[in-house]
Amino acid sequence: MEANDKYEGLAADQEMPLEQGAEQKESESLQQELANLKKERDSVHDQLLRKQAEFDNYRKRVDREKSEFMQFASSDLMKELLNTLDSFDLALRNAAGERGGNANTLRGFELIYKQLQDTMARFGLKAIEAKGQKFDPNFHQAVSTQASNAVEENTVIEEMRKGYTMHGRLLRPAMVSVSVKDGQPRS
Predict the structure, then answer these.
(1) Residues 2, 48 within the same domain
(2) Total structural domains in the chain?
(3) The CATH number of the domain where 167 resides is what?
(4) Same domain? 78 vs 66
């Protein structure tokens, strides 16, 4: 029996290196799998961060577009009201030029006109100051020219219709008459 024990001991000694090699291979395999899982985790984490940034940018863009829409949604209404404002302005100028007109009635209309302008200004409407300014085709529409040596060339002499901006954007250009040097042809 001792001989059998001796052979079994030898066999067990020979199996040990085989088991150690298998364990080492298995350990390396697990380490490789762990490294692959870490890479995959890092990749998924990177994708998550990118998606979060994309969503944040999307949300900001939508908020900005919504704000711009709200800001300029009333521009069509304002354009329509400008015609009424022009008529009101013309009526006030004509009434002020008439003699024998009721001063209190005229003053009342002027107050209503001012109130209407103030209300529209609260919604972003701003009149373009044209008279005496240098002609700017971005804000002025020249409908005539007048020869004059009294003012510098390309200066707005007369404003026929007010121009307006809404929140900094041109809503309607001012219709103006522009000065030219005396001796140049008039349109």
Answers:
(1) yes
(2) 3
(3) 2.30.22.10
(4) no
62 and 86 housed in the same domain: no
CA dihedral 76, 135, 97, 121 (to 10 degrees): 40
The values of phi and psi at residue 142, to 5°, are: -75, 120
Residue 24 burial (10 A CB sphere; 0-12, 13-18, 19+) = exposed
**pTM assigned to the model:** 0.56
**Token pair 């005396």 in the structure block, residue:** 182
pLDDT tens across 83-139, in order? Answer: 888 888 888 877 777 766 677 778 888 888 888 888 888 888 999 999 999 999 999
The Cα 141–Cα 169 span in angstroms is 16
Domain span at residue 180?
126-187
Q: Which residue has the tokens 């042809």?
A: 185
Nearest 5°: the CA angle 180, 151, 95 is 95
